[in-house]
Amino acid sequence: MTDTIIRLLSFLVYAFLLNFFFSSWSVANQLSLKRILVLLGLTGIVSLTAFFASSSIEPFINIIVTLIAMITIASQYDVPNKDMFFWVVILLAINFISESISLAIFDAVLSSQYDAQNLLFVIITTSITMTIEILMFLALKLVFFRNHIILESLNLPSLVALTSIPVVSIIVLFSFLLAKINVTIHSTYFVLLVAFGVLYMNLCILYLYSSLTKHLRQLNQITLQNKSLSYELKYISELKKSQEQLSAIRHDLKNKFIVFRGLLEHNQIDEAKNYLQATTDQLNVRQKFYTRDIILNYLLNDKHELANQANIKFEIKVLLSEQINVDKDILAVLIGNLIDNALEASKRLPNQNEAEISLVIKQFEDKLLIDIKNHYNPGEVVTRRRRKYDGLGTSNIKRIVSNYNGLYKQWTETNVYLVSIILLNIN
Q1: Do the domain assignments include residue 165?
Q2: What total of structural domains would you count in the chain?
Q3: How far apart are CA 205 and CA 389, in angstroms?
Q4: Which of 66, 29, 32 is nearest to 49 (CA)?
Q5: What is the pLDDT of residue 391?
Q6: With b meaning 16 or more CB within 10 Å and e meaning fewer, what string describes 52-89?
Q7: Is residue 267 domain-shared with residue 300, that is, in the same domain?
Q8: Scanning 172, 295, 389, 421, which has the fewest C-beta atoms within 10 Å of its C-beta?
Q9: Strand-pair partners of 418
Q10: pLDDT tens for each residue of 146-175
Q11: In the listed set 254, 286, 318, which residue is the last one of a domain according to the structure?
Q12: Domain region containing 389
């Protein structure tokens, strides 16, 4: 009788934990009469199992009862089927982990005095199991579902793959628990089950590896697009600013011509020349022309201005046609990151008088050559390991070059760092 009461209390506590956990999906409780009857029926099964079921089939009945309770309570909060499948496997694995830990603790302390059929064994192991499960449920709730924030559902193949390790864990731990309570299991079937479980897990890991690499490629592409977009937005902002300045100059131009004409009419030739020179200086365009690609041209001007502000000598030579088979945005991002790396290395030089960057972009036949060199501090070899992950990084630059079947080479000569890139078949 005491054993039955303990099992009923354990089931009721577990049902409460499930209700607490799945409530994260919806604040509305849809506990219908049908679900109440199902839970009452499960409670009755737990009671009858304690009285009449043999020790060999009792664990299997408990698993079925637990699964039905999980599904019933999860559906009460409208948990999507995909999420329900994933979390049922996870929670079942947690159940087996908790029971295995409690058995291990019991074996370490009292195994020599009590066997698995003893009432004290049931009380102690059940108490430890429920304590561990309560702690794990609270941890899951706090980490994943704080303030009723629901995680985005994954697609079914990903969810199935993610459950591979929990499923194998369930198989192994369940077999361990059966052996602990002296339930005979056929070794051949057990080995086959574990072998197929491990095979399933490895196939799932391969699928996850493929999905992760695809996801990382997409993230890299988004990073490139965002970088390119930032260049374009800066260009548009600068263009708007220039247009506003030109509008202001045009607005004042009429008055300036009137003044200029007045100076000429009074034969004030020197004053007229000076006034004309001052007016002409206001119309000078600060941007230099490097290429007809407006985004790349603005980028080079912007980086040149940054170099001037940092007192870094920056020499740029560009020979580039309009028709090349390279995405202009990607080209701007590639060149922009090469220049950024050179600028950062130049700013860290102990002697700023040595700060100098040279960039050559040259098209010949169906190839595009990009050469950049800058002075650097050879003492930065160690600290470079930390900085190499900033921005897009050398590995991503190499990947961009590889996408265009290009060649990448970097090397040093004394205190000069050089990078040479050749993109093939650009026509």
Answers
A1: no
A2: 3
A3: 26
A4: 66
A5: 43
A6: eeeeeebbeebeebbeebbbbbbbbbebeeebbbbbbb
A7: no
A8: 389
A9: 373, 411
A10: 655 555 666 777 777 777 778 777 777 777
A11: 286
A12: 294-423
